[in-house]
Amino acid sequence: MSFITSLSGLKAAQTDLATVSNNIANSSSTGFKKSKATFGDLFASAPTQSTKSVAGQGVRLTGIVQQFTQGSLNSTDRTLDLAIAGDGFFIVEGSSPRQAQSFTRNGNFFVNVNREVVDNIGNRVQMLPVDANGRVTSTAAADLYDFVLPQNDPADPNAVLSNITISDEGVVSATFSNGTQTRIGAVAMASFAAAEGLRPIGDAHWQSTGVSGTPLINQAGNGPLGTVRSGTLEAANIDLTEELVSLIAAQRNFQANAQALETANTLTQTIVNLQT
């Protein structure tokens, strides 16, 4: 039994090491959220058996939980670099034919050849429709549309785009060379009843699951979504000192379980030698 107990401890320590190592490896990844491995003890006994005479049977992994705490906000001075001060997520959509919807905290956005605003892996940023005053007119998922920068003023083809600004509520305003200004829309944001239930798919992107619940869509400044900070990016929520301490603890745990396994092997070998 001690072999099985020590082996479960080795596997648990190895998982803990892998989790902490992944956190450290992504300490420079924009919008990354750290994870923590959680464990529980294994114990089993018959109904008629006294639990005072039964030892535990080891440890098991109960889950690797992501922690969506706020990362530090770093200034970049790029208008399309967006950070969220709050619990919200940007909504992005993949390319055809799947057009899978995902959610990210990495607001390092760019403009592609089609003048679409996309994230670091090419997903298109989604927008909510607004009226002339910048108020959102619909928060329905069916009304989301791609964030596309206009090349010319719709009312004056000779006026080209001069600059864009993005407010704390995510409202995007375009200014043209003739001095006119129009509101393109509001950057769509999503929140979840249980963000820890989101499924990570890499590159600081997540997909909703039955555990996380369906996304609640709105513009920034509503409920827990927080506000949008233009010209800013959110750093990974990693404290390297804390992670290095956790790495040392996981390493010592691994070594202790390996020593327990070696001790159990020595005892077994001693018993075998006595019988011979």
Describe the structure.
- Residues 83-174 form the Flagellar hook protein FlgE/F/G-like D1 domain.
- Residues 230-274 form the Flagellar basal-body/hook protein C-terminal domain.
- One of its GO terms (biological process) is bacterial-type flagellum-dependent swarming motility.
- Its main location: other.
- This protein is an alpha+beta fold and 276 residues long.
- It has two domains: 2-69 and 238-275, no CATH class; 73-234, no CATH class.
- 22% of the residues lie in helices and 33% in strands.
- The chain has two helices and 21 strands.
- It has helices at residues 2-25, 240-275, and strands at residues 35-41, 59-66, 73-75, 81-85, 89-93, 101-104, 107-108, 110-111, 117-118, 124-128, 145-146, 152-153, 156-166, 171-176, 181-187, 189-191, 199-202, 205-207, 216-218, 227-230, 232-234.
- The strands form five sheets. Strands 5, 6, 10, 11, 12, 13, 14, 15, 16, 17, 18 and 19 form a twelve-stranded antiparallel β-sheet that branches. Strands 7-4-20 form a three-stranded antiparallel β-sheet, with no helix packed on it.
- The chain starts with a helix and ends with a helix.
- The mean pLDDT is 90.
